[in-house]
Amino acid sequence: MTKNNVNNTANSKNIRNFSIIAHIDHGKSTLADRMLEVTGTIEARKMKDQVLDSMELERERGITIKMQPVRMIYEAKASTYKLEPETYVLNLIDTPGHIDFSYEVSRALKAVEGSILLVDATQGVQAQTLTTLQMARLPRQGRGEQDMVIIPVLSKIDSPLARVDEVKMELALLLNINPDTILEVSGRTGVGVSHLLDEVIKLIPAPNIDSDVSNKLIQGASGRALVFDFKYDNHRGVIVYVRVIDGAFRRGESLLFAVSNEKFIALEVGTFSPEEMPRDEIRGGEIGYIVTGIKKPGIASVGDTITYVKRPLPALPGYMKPNPVVWASVYPESADDFPGLKTAFGRLRLSDSSFSYEEESSGTLGRGFRCGFLGMLHLEIVTERLIREFDLDLVVTMPSITYKVMLKSGVEQIVYSPHLFPDDGNIAKIFEPWVNVKIILPTSYITSLMPFLYDHEASVLATENFGDSRSTIDIEMPLRELMRNFFDELKSLSSGYASISYEIGEYREADVVRLDILVADEVMVAFTRVVSRRRVEEEAKLQVEKLQKVIPRQMFAFKIQGKALGRIISSESVSAFRKDVTQHMYGGDITRKMKLREKQKKGKKKMAGRGTVNISHEVFLKMMRGE
Question: Strand pairing partners for 226?
């Protein structure tokens, strides 16, 4: 098979579909860059770092946010494993490494037959390495193929800080393999990359395609494709990234989203090089894209199945609608920007269906949106994209989670905003989501870690040593506590050596209460939060004192109070501006001054009874940022 006909129709026996799975900052994107160089997919003059990370935000942070497939043509050498010289199509899917995008990663893994497990030789096995590995090892159902092949690889071997032998032993113990079978590469210099590509061809099987069945489907104009990602184009609408499972897909065919039941006509089909390359058709076993022309949000979703309208095939198993884990309200700093924010949310959801939003209003902040996200990083990315791509100035409230509240009347409520939390006297039971957390850190830090875990209401399930001086700790804890600065405090406590991954678990009974912040006897909805009952006094005191420092004085005195459990827990006073009304008087009867001061006192009292305190955006931002 020549390189030319590979670009048109690839023999499925010469296709290898694989991904790279790794912890954040373990060199995944850099290794992908070297693969593109070795295979000649990108000309040397066009090469740049993180070439598959197309978003400016990805390049700045050095992390992968959006999945990016690429099709590489590789000439196998005659001497390699005694194989005849042949041309292979290597389809790589570069996946995100953060836990927030675990569902998207699981769909991408469903689209490939093998994965490169990449571990940094300077850092060793990390928590997210274990989580993604477990995901890759899940039994594969629905298409009769074998379980995914895992190729262990050590990266950054050229670094002066590399611990090659030690990390190899860690990885060997984890996978129960011989350390000598672990490959070594350098994404910076390209050492070992060609050998790794040869191993991909040797170890990862070709797509499991029944040629007779496939030919019948192609002749009958039918097929199925798994959607593992998508993006939005202003002119062409939603472009879905697919792995073709059965049959073939061509331009001009009438197709159907199996889950959303939305019909469309394929405006274009093609593959990635890594830019989009139109082709006549994409067949079973190939990875490519389909231009849908759809410009409505909420239609395309990761995990959906594309099939034909006239001869639809059953949807592929495993589809799951991502559920929001973290909630936050987003408001424009200027009320005039609300229409722009609404438009921005609609356009952003065309390329990211995993966040939700609905309109809400606040007496303090005006009109905005209550949004649901997959996690804290997802929240950061969406809000940062709103700021950059749509030139908006935003106010983002304190993130919260979803609670299930059972009232004494027997009614169950789903509460995702703290100010909607019922009064303590009306509540029978409260349930909150818990998380299963895995922490990897040096053994010497375990002693100082235990009080920290107790403070965050965590329970230790298991502790295991691996390697020479590192331990993995499995814990369970409320998601509420994980969001209470857990990551930053853990990094500080472990001098930056700890890594963490987590999975959302079940709902459990919670002992939490609503904490309201009152300013001049008026509840400030924006500052309301749900906190642990045992920490409510500490939290009330902290918030009241913080607000007292940043709120400006008024013409009348007022109080800032923290209220929970039906009573005032913490209180601070803010004194009024006071003008000396007697400064123009030089002598005379003292009673004249007393009368003026008494008149001023009555005026201040009257003003305090009628006046309100307006909290500016600056005050609100300082409270949110902890300034």
Answer: 243, 305
- Hey, which bits of 377-534 come out as E strands? 394-396, 403-407, 412-415, 427-442, 459-466, 470-478, 499-509, 512-519, 522-523, 529-532
| Look-up of token digits 């800032």 | 560
Phi and psi for 252 in degrees, rounded to 5? 90, -5
Cα separation, 84 vs 76, whole angstroms: 8
159 and 13 inside one domain:
yes
* pLDDT above 90 coverage of the chain, percent: 29
- DSSP secondary structure letter of residue 160: T
Average pLDDT over residues 60-70: 68
State the CATH number of the domain containing residue 83.
3.40.50.300
Annotated binding-site residue numbers: 25-30, 155-158
pLDDT in tens, 200-257: 999 999 988 877 777 777 777 788 999 988 888 888 999 999 999 888 999 999 999 9
Residue labelled with tokens 């875990």: 453
Q: Cβ neighbours of residue 167 under 8 Å, at least 6 residues apart?
A: 119, 120, 121, 124, 125, 154, 467
* 86 three-class SS: coil
The answer to whether residues 469 and 542 belong to one domain is no
Distance CA 297, CA 351 (A): 8
Most distant CA pair in the chain: distance in Å? 115
363 close to 312: Cβ distance less than 8 angstroms: no
> Residue positions in the annotated binding site for GTP?
25-30, 155-158
